[in-house]
């Protein structure tokens, strides 16, 4: 049996990486043992990270489409796109896969550029001509103009599992799709190795951390999604750290500056370095620049007092481990996954207004959220555990649906496509 899995071309984006790990890890327990997974992880360090996270699973790497797409040496854009599609068709023919899975989160949206979106949609259409396609853990759209019509045409051919109710409502009410199910982000499931006590103790010891005696901050390298002025963006984090260390209940806590996406143009470590340049007192600041694996990141995020993050999956990992996280939001995915999905609206800050960063209002909003956490910490943690349990159950639906499709090959195609398969 062969399964194609796409949207994991960069395992150093630990959000998409942990979704990939969880999909494959939880799926292999339900399907035949001879299954091979074909992925778009390049055959380099990315593939090494993937295989080391999934021992005893047959995983095959592929040339990264995004590298071809971005390489200016491949000629004019139409030529590059033609090369990509020829490569895609060749892979489809050669793999003879039983099923294709497109991982979420929000790649199928207009946030990251029109060309990337259209290429992704048309690639999915090519897959759907030869095999059933599952879109899992998704926040799809929103779409505007002519892109909405292309999206409707392609998405009708897929089995879609949204990671929150708001997106389910959008696809049903705005796009008129019926081949959709509400689910949750795959990262809410347990990562392999996340409960390894020995690894946890070793990791915390390595960075001089004590459980619940540190606060984790994950500043996003995608600062332009928040603020036009990089200096203002950095200054708000600096101001929060200074206030935390100025006295009061948190003055004795260490501050951990943790990257969640690295080795890209939006590497979080770049912003962390800028923050450190402006801090006068650095003795209780821990900077982690190591290339950690998702389970290691989750151990750090989930054993602190709370997290402040511009990367959504750092918040998901923190919540998954039963701790609160303050999310700095720039898109609708935060509202759906965290505000609505976990009923944690008070801990999600809309930070897409550049003027609020320029006026240092984001730092003030963060401090207000910290006051809320301190006031209701134990009650909040109890609520988090309950809500995460619900999200785990919903996330599992995607795994079950795919396994049932593989075991019973006639069952779960979208109605519009049954005759074509």
Would you kindly provide a written description of the structure presented here, covering whatever features stand out?
There is one protein chain. With 421 residues, this protein is an alpha/beta fold. The chain folds into 2 domains: 2-183 and 390-417, Rossmann fold (3-Layer(aba) Sandwich); 197-375, 3-Layer(aba) Sandwich (Rossmann fold). It is 47% helix and 13% strand. A 7-stranded parallel sheet has the order 3-2-1-4-5-6-7, with helices on both faces. Strand 2 (36-39), helix 2 (45-53) and strand 3 (58-60) form a beta-alpha-beta unit. Helix 4 runs parallel beside helix 5 and helix 9 packs across helix 10. The radius of gyration is 21 Å and the shape is globular. The two termini are 17 Å apart. Mean pLDDT is 88; it is low at 65-76 and 411-421.
Write the layout of secondary structure elements.
Elements: E1 2-6, H1 14-28, E2 36-39, H2 45-53, E3 58-60, H3 65-70, H4 77-95, E4 99-103, H5 114-128, E5 133-138, H6 146-155, E6 159-162, H7 165-173, E7 180-182, H8 197-206, E8 214-218, H9 230-245, E9 254-257, H10 268-278, E10 285-287, H11 294-302, E11 307-309, H12 312-320, E12 325-329, H13 332-340, E13 348-350, H14 354-358, H15 361-375, H16 377-407
Parallel strand pairs: 1-2, 1-4, 2-3, 4-5, 5-6, 6-7, 8-9, 8-11, 9-10, 11-12, 12-13
Helix pairs in contact: 4-5, 5-6, 9-10, 9-15, 11-12
């Amino acid at each position: 049996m062969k399964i194609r899995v796409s949207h994991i071309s960069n395992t150093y984006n630990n959000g998409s990486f942990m979704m990939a790990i969880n999909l494959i890890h939880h799926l292999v327990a339900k399907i035949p043992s001879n299954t091979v997974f074909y992925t778009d992880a390049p055959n380099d360090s990315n593939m090494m990270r993937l295989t080391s996270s999934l021992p005893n699973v047959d995983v095959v790497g592929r040339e990264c489409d995004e590298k071809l797409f971005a390489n200016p040496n491949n000629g004019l854009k139409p030529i590059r796109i033609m090369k990509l599609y020829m490569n895609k068709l060749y892979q489809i023919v050669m793999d003879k896969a039983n099923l294709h899975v497109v991982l979420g989160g929000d790649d199928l949206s207009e946030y990251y550029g029109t060309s990337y979106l259209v290429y992704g949609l048309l690639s999915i259409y090519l897959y759907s001509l030869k095999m059933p396609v599952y879109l899992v853990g998704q926040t799809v759209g929103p779409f505007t103009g002519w892109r909405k019509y292309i999206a409707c045409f392609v998405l009708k051919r897929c089995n879609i599992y949204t990671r929150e109710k708001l997106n389910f409502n959008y696809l049903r009410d705005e796009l008129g799709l019926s081949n959709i199910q509400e689910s949750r982000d795959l990262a809410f499931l347990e990562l392999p190795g996340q409960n390894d006590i020995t690894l946890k103790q070793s990791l915390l010891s390595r960075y001089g951390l004590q459980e619940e005696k540190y606060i984790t901050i994950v500043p996003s390298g995608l600062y332009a999604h928040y603020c036009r002025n990089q200096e203002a963006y950095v200054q708000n984090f600096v101001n929060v750290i200074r206030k935390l260390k100025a006295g009061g209940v948190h003055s004795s806590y260490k501050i951990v500056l943790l990257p969640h996406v690295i080795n890209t143009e939006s590497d979080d470590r770049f912003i962390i370095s800028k923050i450190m340049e402006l801090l006068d007192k650095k003795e209780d600041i821990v900077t982690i620049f190591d290339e950690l694996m998702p389970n290691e990141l989750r151990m750090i995020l989930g054993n602190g007092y709370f997290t402040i993050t511009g990367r959504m999956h750092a918040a998901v990992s923190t919540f998954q481990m039963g701790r609160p996280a303050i999310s700095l939001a720039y898109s609708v995915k935060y509202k759906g996954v965290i505000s609505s999905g976990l009923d944690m609206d008070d801990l999600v800050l809309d930070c897409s207004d550049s003027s609020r960063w320029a006026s240092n209002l984001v730092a003030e909003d963060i401090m207000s959220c910290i006051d809320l956490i301190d006031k209701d910490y134990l009650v909040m943690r109890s609520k988090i555990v309950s809500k995460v349990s619900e999200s785990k159950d919903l996330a599992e639906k995607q795994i079950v649906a795919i396994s049932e499709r593989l075991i019973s090959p006639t069952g779960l195609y979208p109605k519009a496509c049954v005759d074509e398969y």
